[in-house]
Amino acid sequence: METDNNEVVVSQQKGKKKVITKTVIETFCSNIDMDKMYSLNELNTILGEVYTEVKNQKKKTQGEKKPPNAYNLFIKENMSKIKAENPSLETKDVMKKAAELWKKQKDESK
Fold this sequence. Notes:
This protein is mainly alpha-helical and 110 residues long. Helix content is 68%, strand content 0%.
């Protein structure tokens, strides 16, 4: 869908899909020569390349993880200790004990 100013409007999409679609359309429009006549196959190829490029850029930015919080660090440190002390416990029980320790430590610090 286009407006009077030749701006591309993507109103049917929602959320992240809208952003990806808009980025693909903008990149596609910047990669083609508006004065040149393209065959359908050429346009399809260009669009495919643009789509792949945008998806790969998205994957690169998604790879950045935020640092673990205090709870995550505590659990990571204490789960191995609890497992060593109680080798017969299942993982979910080890996690419960670690969570109880966290709660106890948090209550004591108040």
